[in-house]
Design brief:
Layout: E1 3-10, E2 14-23, E3 28-31, E4 34-37, E5 40-43, E6 46-49, E7 53-55, E8 58-60, E9 65-68, E10 74-77, E11 82-85, E12 87-99, E13 104-107, E14 111-120, E15 125-128, E16 140-146, E17 153-156, E18 160-161, H1 168-171, E19 172-174, E20 186-187, E21 189-191, E22 203-205, E23 210-211, E24 219-220, E25 233-236, E26 243-251, E27 256-259, E28 265-269, E29 275-277, H2 278-284, E30 292-296, E31 311-315, E32 320-321, E33 325-326, E34 343-344, E35 349-353, E36 360-363, E37 368-369, E38 378-379, E39 394-401, E40 406-414, E41 430-431, E42 439-442, E43 452-457, E44 465-472, E45 479-486, E46 493-496, E47 501-504, E48 517-526, H3 535-542, E49 545-549, E50 553-557, E51 564-570, E52 576-581, E53 589-593, E54 600-607, E55 610-617
Parallel strand pairs: 2-4, 2-5, 3-6, 4-7, 5-8, 6-9, 7-10, 9-12, 10-12, 11-13, 12-14, 13-15, 14-16, 21-22, 34-38, 40-43
Antiparallel strand pairs: 1-2, 16-26, 17-25, 18-26, 19-20, 19-26, 23-24, 27-36, 28-35, 29-34, 29-37, 30-31, 31-32, 33-40, 39-40, 39-45, 41-43, 42-44, 44-48, 46-47, 46-48, 49-50, 50-53, 51-52, 51-54, 54-55
Length: about 625
């Protein structure tokens, strides 16, 4: 016997497997009716199906081909929500084969669309393993929804091609009636006018179609331009509700690469008809880039770039932060805003920047996963999303709101199973994308030139202190707040090292009253209330005398066993007026020239034994 069944039953013109079905290599088997697998199905031969395939059990295949050969529409479905084939052939003389919503179609080798189309309904996905080319006259069709407004951008990447490249004119269709017209979506009308519309079929403005290759910035294209698999492009919406589009073409599969030089930015996109794992993508390209930036529209209603309200959400292996946009618009910019998730949805475009020494950006099948947007861990950037907490990691989301209402979010992740520490860690720490004039950010390794929005470290330690930089360009109300805690149950504080005070932001906001300026060594994110001075330290500091004398100097009398490293003098607004270091600080009496108007000032003494702030009046 070349194939065998254990407990296979024919019921009302159906074939049902309740045990084990194994088809040996080089064996040809025909099923003329609907086939349901409730147990174990292994096809290493050639199985021809004339009806639906319902998989409620386990499927495996190490070789051979499964062919769908009916003269009417066939469906792939089942409670297992997935099926595994080695080779898949669609040879359907009707319109094709439909894979139901939220179903994973796993194919080890090739997909051959000999006759008829393969329709992935809504969240259905195709995941292939081997680096092979797909072929055939038939097409794969897959839905994706984009932003609705005529002024708002989405960044895209096509999951299909035609002859090796993709064009919007032949590969993107109106999906408005996809539920009733699944296999024959209408062609989109393209216009040179400013705005698209919800006409039937829909109209897209080609004025806003661009790619962003590594040189030359934005590159204008039209609906007939050839776009390579993995290359990203921009497009604006139709003006209706969230618009459904249908990609139609040969499914992309295998390896795709792009050349990039140091310091360059590149707009790329998920090239596959499945989600991809951003962690794996970063690991595979860690010598080139270590973070991903997603454009999020902030609700602007103008085509002028000066009026855009959007920004870039940023993600890496620690997590993701929302874009800095006005918090009142659609909930974006707040803790409930659009957060980059680990898994990148079908059709999603995004930016990467070459910050390493590598020169090639690479996509491959090992990055592909079956994760739906409805799971809460995969997103296409059009509205808001939910977030699920994974494994044992803990997260703190700090928010900062400037006087104009723009909300910046910072993420601090505690990742016990990672290699990250409090120094800079490539792939775990992410720079701000598109900084504004007023900003709050992490400072890592005392590098004051870089503004980080994500910092990932190892296991939590309540002794940790994370330096924060605050830039105030516009006077007004600047607010630092706690956006969210995820799997974290400790108090969170903002420490002012100048005033020697600690603010609890767990339950209330912190509003620093400061003039315009850069505050790069003043604030820290900490997890303990005001530091308690030990008895030994108390003995040392009680013997210090700090005062102002009539010779316009600040005098510090200290014990010989106190090693002073730095002395800072501030006004009551926290502005640094004087910094004294090194020379003269080892003397018993330290004299610092001080000629400022009469008033009260703060003297911060930094020593190896600790720090203490003193008040003086001149």
């Amino acid at each position: 016997m070349c194939f065998y069944f254990i407990s296979v039953t024919a019921i009302f013109s159906q074939i049902v497997n309740d045990g084990t079905l194994q088809i040996k290599p080089s064996t040809i088997v025909y099923f003329g009716e609907q086939y349901t697998n409730n147990a174990t199905h292994n096809n290493d031969g050639n199985l021809h199906l004339n009806g639906n395939f319902i998989n409620n059990g386990l499927t495996t295949s190490n070789e051979g081909t499964t062919s769908f050969v009916s003269s009417s529409i066939q469906n792939i479905q089942g409670s297992s929500n997935e099926v595994n084939f080695y080779n898949l052939e669609i040879n359907n003389s009707s319109v094709g084969v439909s894979v139901v919503d939220n179903f994973g179609l796993f194919v080890e080798n090739t997909v051959t669309l000999t006759l008829g189309d393969l329709r992935l309904v809504n969240e259905a996905q195709l995941i292939q393993t081997n680096n092979v080319s797909n072929s055939g006259a038939g097409k794969l069709l897959r839905d994706q929804q984009g932003i609705s407004t005529t002024t708002g951008y989405n960044y895209w990447g096509s999951p299909v091609n035609s002859g090796g490249t993709f064009s919007l004119a032949t590969g993107l269709f109106d999906g408005t009636d996809a539920t009733t017209n699944s296999f024959s979506p209408s062609a989109i009308t393209f216009t040179g006018a400013l705005d698209g519309s919800t006409s039937s079929p829909i109209t897209i403005s080609n004025m806003w179609l661009y790619t962003f290759p590594t040189t030359g910035g934005w590159n204008k294209i039209d609906q007939n331009s050839a776009i390579n698999p993995g290359q990203g492009f921009s497009m604006k919406g139709t003006g209706g509700a969230n618009q459904n589009y249908v990609f139609k073409g040969t499914p992309n599969n295998g390896n795709y690469s792009f050349t990039i030089a140091a310091g360059q930015n590149l707009l790329i996109g998920n090239p596959y008809p499945s989600a991809i794992d951003s962690y794996q993508l970063i690991d595979d390209n860690i010598s080139v880039f270590d973070q991903i930036s997603f454009w999020v529209d902030g609700g602007s209603n103008s085509h002028y770039t000066s009026d855009y309200l959007g920004g870039y959400a940023v993600g890496n292996k620690t997590g993701g932060v929302a874009a800095s946009v006005i918090a009142a618009i659609d909930g974006l910019g707040s803790a409930s805003g659009v957060l980059p998730e680990r898994y990148i949805a079908i059709g999603q475009g995004f930016f990467v920047e070459a910050t390493g020494g590598g020169t090639s950006v690479n996509f491959n099948n090992a990055q592909r996963v079956f994760v739906t947007e409805g799971s809460g861990v995969s997103d296409f950037y059009k509205t808001t999303s939910s977030k699920t907490i994974e494994d044992i990691n803990s997260y703190i989301r700090i928010g900062y709101e400037d006087p104009e209402g723009f909300h910046r979010q910072l993420l601090l992740g505690f990742l016990p199973n990672s290699t990250a520490d409090t120094s800079y860690n490539r792939g775990y720490d992410a720079l701000m994308s598109g900084p504004r004039e007023d900003e709050l950010f992490y400072i890592i390794d005392n590098d004051l030139e870089k503004k980080y929005v994500i910092q990932g470290v190892g296991e939590f330690n309540d002794d940790y202190e994370f330096p924060l930089g605050l830039i105030i360009a516009e006077e007004g109300v600047h607010t630092i707040m706690l956006d969210a805690l995820e799997n974290f149950d400790h108090k969170v504080y903002i420490k002012d090292v100048v005033l020697n005070t600690v603010y609890d932001v767990t339950d209330s906001n912190f509003i620093p009253n400061l003039p315009a300026g850069e505050y790069l060594d003043r604030f820290k994110l900490v997890f303990k209330p005001k530091e308690q001075i030990t008895e030994e330290e108390l003995d040392v500091f009680t013997s210090i005398q700090v005062y102002y004398n009539k010779n316009n100097s600040v005098i510090i009398n200290k014990p010989n066993d106190l090693t002073v490293k730095n002395v800072f003098i501030y006004n009551l607004l926290g502005q640094q007026l004087v910094k004294a270091s090194k020379s003269g600080l080892d003397e018993y009496q330290i004299s610092i020239p001080f000629e400022f108007k009469k008033g009260m000032y703060l003297v911060l003494v930094e020593s190896e034994e600790g720090n203490k702030t003193f008040k003086i009046v001149n």
